[in-house]
Design brief:
heterodimer; A: mainly beta; Rossmann fold; Neuraminidase; 2 domains; five-stranded antiparallel beta sheet; five-stranded mixed beta sheet; 30 strands; elongated; B: alpha+beta; 60s Ribosomal Protein L30, Chain: A; four-stranded mixed beta sheet; 4 strands; 13% strand; globular; disordered N terminus
């Protein structure tokens, strides 16, 4: 068991080794509302944790709080670190259902072992536990992994704290495509330009990003490998090339091209070969997004007079028809499927406000999740429980996340610069 | 008289054409052609053709390079018709000249959808130009969407300046 875990952590570290440039533009979290039935949890600072350069339990607590599913119970005055020290009655009195304890052991100046246990207060038993050994520079990574284990044990859902997000940061005349941990820390620039970058899209295995760059005075679709920074133009045809999205098997991209007239959706192999036309309308067809089974795409089209979301099969047949999915309002754009394919998030305009909404595919039931003014680019977390999106505060672009039920929202803000075009990355391979 | 008739016919044709989307006559060019577009635009200036002096003469309508639009519209307004037709005639008469048309939008709404709206603006100018005698290969219509605003800020005065198509001669 332990060896299995260590292997997984090791793999995670390999995944992140390329994060080498100095970090900046860290994001802070503010929580606004909250769900009604949160799980009360107490997290006791780990033994010897205060000797580390980086706190661990504070990161675990912030991760759990951001989901809106947990309420933090104050542990002050009590400091058990092993099960034998736990006085369960104390925690019952404080209203905690779950208790996190643990300790930190410095194996060497560089190697840190973290032992943690999740205790069920009512049953007076250990629910789960984990021992992780990491280099001192990877303590945040270990904390996210522990938060995942706690989240999974208490909710039965897969945790997304070890995932990454991509977005575009504009500062002055500079545009940076950045990748950060799901909590906004460890931000690294993948590429920087003095020309705009939009529409980053993760490959399903999380190793590559497709995006649109304007460096050649027009939009061109590039694919860049994160580990090597190597990149290639995959769609650079006459006219505009934009809106890349990956097929679930990672072999193809859907892109929007204008060279045959209008803005239409095409399929292209990830190496730029095998171009194939998908949509055939006299209007605008854009923002394609694959269903998880890869058989259909949802996209934005104004074929009916106003931009709405449609669905069509992935086939090059000329008889391919599209089914309109959205009917409320005159502006519904930027669709993104949830991982189970049962719902999609999109931007809905109402009274000149642009808000994040979710629609169930089956029932067509729509729920508006935000009440800000200028929301853009909604992106589902890989467990379908949260949505990351771009919004605006005081004229500045920031990232925000909202729980699937709309009950909890938080801002992830930088100190300076404009942040836009977020895309939530996939689960790590070991999940 | 014959020439006059020709011009008015072109105006009529393009008045109709600007209401519709571009006919699907273009072939997608190979991937290689595009990357070079950027370097062409930043040409050194040495050995440039003589016609550039004509393009840059401030007294000539050819020195005007921007077409502005109404909100949510991609129709070339009548006040810009002569500007577009002048450039079309110039392209017709200078077979080695070529342009890139960059459509732009204001910054409300989805970036990708705005990119498509900007494309429609550039396409409407291209359509008008090809009907007036410019060849398809001389014109590449692209969109910058809301990404390269001429005027920053909110409000109609800024937005109006950002809803436009720019005509850029390669090598100029």
């Amino acid at each position: 068991m332990l060896i299995h875990w260590l292997k997984q952590i090791h793999y995670l570290l390999i995944l992140t080794w390329w994060l080498s440039t100095p970090l900046y533009a860290q994001l802070n979290i503010e929580i606004f509302g909250g769900g009604a039935s949160r799980i009360p949890i107490a997290i006791v600072p780990f033994a010897e944790e205060n000797k580390l350069q980086q706190g661990i339990t504070s990161i675990i607590g912030a991760d759990l709080q951001r989901t809106g599913l947990f309420r933090m119970v104050d542990p002050s005055g009590l400091s058990p670190h092993v099960p034998a020290d736990v006085e369960y009655a104390d925690w019952v009195n404080r209203g905690a259902n779950a208790l996190v304890i643990g300790r930190v052991i410095a194996l060497s100046s560089d190697q840190i072992e973290i032992q943690f246990r999740l205790m069920d207060v009512a049953k007076r038993t250990q629910l789960t536990g984990l021992s992780i050994t990491v280099p001192a520079t990877q303590l945040r990574t270990a904390a996210h992994r522990i938060a995942d284990v706690i989240y999974e044990a208490l909710t039965g859902d897969v945790g997304v704290f070890s995932t990454r997000i991509a977005y575009v940061l504009k500062r002055g005349n500079k545009y940076a495509l950045q990748v950060a941990d799901a909590d906004g820390y460890n931000a690294q620039s993948i590429i920087e330009y003095t020309e705009p970058i939009i529409s980053p899209a993760w490959s399903p295995d999380g190793t590559q990003l497709a995006y649109v760059s304007f460096e050649n005075k027009k939009p061109v679709v590039y694919v860049q490998t994160l580990a090597t920074r190597e990149r290639r133009a995959v769609a650079s045809f006459k006219g505009s090339n934009s809106a890349p999205t990956w097929s679930p098997d990672g072999r193809k991209l859907a892109v929007v091209l204008t060279g045959q007239g209008g803005s239409q959706i095409f399929l292209i192999n990830a190496d730029g070969s095998g171009l194939q036309r998908l949509s055939r309308s006299s209007g605008i067809d854009t923002e394609p997004n694959f269903s998880p089974d890869g058989r259909s795409i949802i996209f934005t089209s104004d074929r009916g007079g106003s931009p709405q979301i449609y669905r069509m099969a992935v086939t090059s047949s000329e008889n391919n028809t599209a089914e309109r999915l959205t009917f409320e309002g005159s502006y519904n754009v930027s669709p993104d499927f949830s991982q189970d394919g049962k719902s999609f998030t999109f931007i809905h305009r109402n009274n000149n406000q642009f808000n994040v909404a979710v629609q169930e595919v089956g029932s067509r039931q729509v729920q508006i999740l935000t009440n800000s003014k200028f929301d853009e680019s909604p992106s589902f977390a890989p467990n379908g429980k949260m949505i990351l999106y771009a919004t605006e505060i005081d004229g500045r672009g920031i990232l925000s996340a909202v729980s699937r039920d709309g009950q909890t929202r938080q801002h992830l803000t930088t100190q300076t610069g404009d942040i836009r075009e977020p895309a939530w990355g996939p689960l790590p391979k070991w999940k | 008289m014959r020439k006059l008739l020709g011009v008015s016919l072109i105006v009529l044709l393009s008045a109709c054409a600007s209401q519709t989307t571009q006919p699907e006559t273009d072939e997608l060019a190979g991937g290689a052609g595009i990357g070079s577009g950027g370097s062409d635009l930043m040409g050194s200036g040495s050995g440039r053709p003589g016609y550039f002096s004509q393009l840059q003469d401030p007294n000539s309508i050819l020195s005007q390079r921007s077409v502005y639009y109404d909100y949510d519209s991609y129709t070339v307004k009548s006040e810009y018709r002569e500007l577009v037709l002048s450039h079309a005639r110039f392209l017709r008469d200078n077979a080695d000249a070529s342009v890139i048309l960059q459509g732009n939008t204001d910054d409300r709404g989805s970036r990708e959808y705005n990119l498509a709206l900007g494309q429609r603006r550039a396409d409407s100018v291209k359509n008008m130009m090809t009907l007036a005698g410019a060849r398809d290969e001389q014109i590449e219509s692209v969109s910058l969407g809301e990404e390269k605003p001429r005027a920053l800020g909110q409000g109609e005065s800024a937005w109006g300046q950002n809803r436009r198509t720019d005509i850029i001669y390669r090598g100029e």
